[in-house]
Amino acid sequence: MSWMIYGASGYTGRLVADLAIDRGERPVLAGRAPAKIAEVATPRGLPYRSFDLADPEAVDEGLAGIDVVAHCAGPFSATSAAMVEGCLRAGAHYLDITGEIDVFESVFANHERARSAGVVLLPGAGFDVVPTDCLAAMVAAELPTATHLDLAFQTSGGISGGTLKSALEGAALGGRARIDGEVREVPMAWRRREVLFPSGSRRVTSLPWGDVSTAYRSTGIANITTFAHLPGLDRAGRRSSRLSRALLSSSAVQRLGKAAISAVVSGPGKSARSRSWVEVYAEATDDAGRSVSAALIGPDTYDLTADSVLRAVNALQSEQPAPGAHTPSTAFGPDFVRRLHGIRIIEPARS
Hints:
Elements: E1 3-6, H1 11-22, E2 28-31, H2 34-44, E3 48-50, H3 56-62, E4 68-71, H4 76-90, E5 93-96, H5 101-108, H6 111-117, E6 120-122, H7 130-142, E7 148-155, H8 161-173, E8 175-179, E9 182-186, E10 192-197, E11 200-206, H9 211-219, E12 223-228, H10 231-235, H11 238-248, H12 251-264, H13 270-274, E13 277-285, E14 291-299, H14 301-318, E15 324-325, H15 328-332, E16 344-350
Parallel strand pairs: 1-2, 1-4, 2-3, 4-5, 5-6, 6-15, 7-12
Antiparallel strand pairs: 7-13, 8-9, 10-11, 11-12, 13-14, 14-16
Helix pairs in contact: 1-14, 4-5, 5-9, 7-9, 8-11, 8-12
């Protein structure tokens, strides 16, 4: 199998490439800028290609002979659609590491085209959204009558420039939740609650997260809210959230913010990642008041992402899920998260 990491000169792309080498694999590295890709690929002894996603002919040439593309070049709102189109034309499986709700919705809209092309489209093959998606599927299976799903996470680690740029775009869109089966706008921080993570109880605040899109497809549950334990967000009121959204909606603010991120943010180093962790909580409830909850604890989100991408690439080849657009749990089952290094599951419990 020949597979590609597009965006290999970025922070997460490099992590995926290095882990692939450690596991004896030789992916093709790719990206838009020839010099940057050569700088990554040459010392690692890996083949590389450069092509701009804005040029369909160049994309077709760049994907020639490739079976799977691990798309790591964000913000995915600007890059995903062109790569999906290229993969559909090339007959190559596509996966990415997005957490952007609108990107998920856009990819899922290509389900029938992917089926016809014999291609798997798998957005969210990293921390966004493998742990949350698989945990959601586990609790939903334990409570088939569930009508509501709450998902929450907290992490101790740092953040890369690409993730910050995606977060900057997402903040301008405000809050979102799944309500009666539809993705709807809601105020940022519209809900708060206590969650029992493996390390203890924490107050969490709602925010837009990829599972607003993906968990509905994985579970069929019509009402989904996503939360995080973020002290700054916990203190923010709805009024301040509206003001922040109005400011961040400015194209000038977006442009200046992304430029500043590029200049000063490089992502956490290996030592910092080794000390980092993530915890995830899922709770499904039904109209009779029954509930099922589960949780997990895992390693740093970027290390988890690199591990998950590699395992997903291998699983696409060995397990051959049905063509079409998938979530991690619909492609490989809810237990896919158990394959990842350092994951500990707190099994579903009823109350």
